[in-house]
Amino acid sequence: MKHLSMTIFLLSALTSCTTNSLYTQPLAVADPAPKSISTATLYSTAATEKSGPVNVYLIPLNDFSEDVAAQMGRDLSKEFGLWVKGTVAMGTQGLMPMPSSQQFAAEDIFEQAKTVMQRLPEADSSTYFIFLTNRDINSRARNFRFQFSYHDKVCRCSLISAARMHPEPESSASGSQQLQSRFIKMTKRAIGQMVLNWERSSDIKDLMYSPIMSLDDIDHLGNRHPAISKK
Fold first, then answer.
1. Would you give the end-to-end CA distance of the chain in angstroms?
2. What would the 3-class secondary structure string for the chain be?
3. Pairing of strands 137-138, 56-60
4. Contact 163, 134 (CB under 8 A)
5. N or C terminus of the chain with fewer C-beta within 10 Å?
6. Contact, 121 vs 89, CB < 8 A?
7. What is the chain's mean pLDDT, rounded?
8. Contact of 220 with 211, CB cutoff 8 Å
């Protein structure tokens, strides 16, 4: 992503809500935005608020920055021609990691989110919900060691986790950019697969390449699928 606003927020704000949680891993440490940069500068000129149902809600869990979710919504709306909207953080009282594990089951998060999804005012039966977290995630079945993302077509939900996307060394500027790139690619893949019905590809240069088995796979993904049509 080349947007200045996304770069500033994703590098500095993703960590803002994580330090008090036992089960979260902070994203790459970066200097905050210079005080001389105003809020108007940080946010690109926002498109006029759309009417009708939201196409995709980005819902941060309470370990993920609300500012980042909102900015991602603006940038992805512009890129995809959809209405992608960030919300305030979702409460997770009572959410616990799976037994003998520090990982959280994606299904448990979706179960907790049912009421939240039903009460979002601009959602309808076609709205898709993407949850954003720093928690380490897996499925209840734990068929894999961990998962970068998890999707459920029945509840129209996806969960994107940054816990396993940390570069080494993550404190460097290039490492922060790498983390940003990984997280955005996985979020865009979720929209492509679950909202736009894009087919998976065997071309590693395609955003929809599959299967993704490692960080190296994510890093080699292209940033585009077929040209995104502007609506």
1. 20
2. CCCHHHHHHHHHCCCCCCCCCCCECCCCCCCCCCCCCCHHHHCCCCCCCCCCCCCEEEEEECCCCHHHHHHHHHHHHHHHCCCEEECCCECCCCCCCCCCCCCEEHHHHHHHCHHHHHHCCCCCCCCEEEEEECECEECCCCCCCCECEEEECCCCEEEEECCCCCCCCCCCHHHHHHHHHHHHHHHHHHHHHHCCCCCCECCCCCCCECCCCCHHHHHHCCCCCCCCCCC
3. unpaired
4. yes
5. C
6. no
7. 80
8. no
Distance between CA atoms of 168 and 70, rounded to whole angstroms? 27
Q: Which tokens go with 29?
A: 């440490």
Closest to 187 in 3D by CA, of 131, 117, 113: 131
* Alpha carbons 49 and 32: distance in angstroms, whole number: 28
How far apart (Å, rounded) are the C-alpha atoms in residues 180 and 165? 9
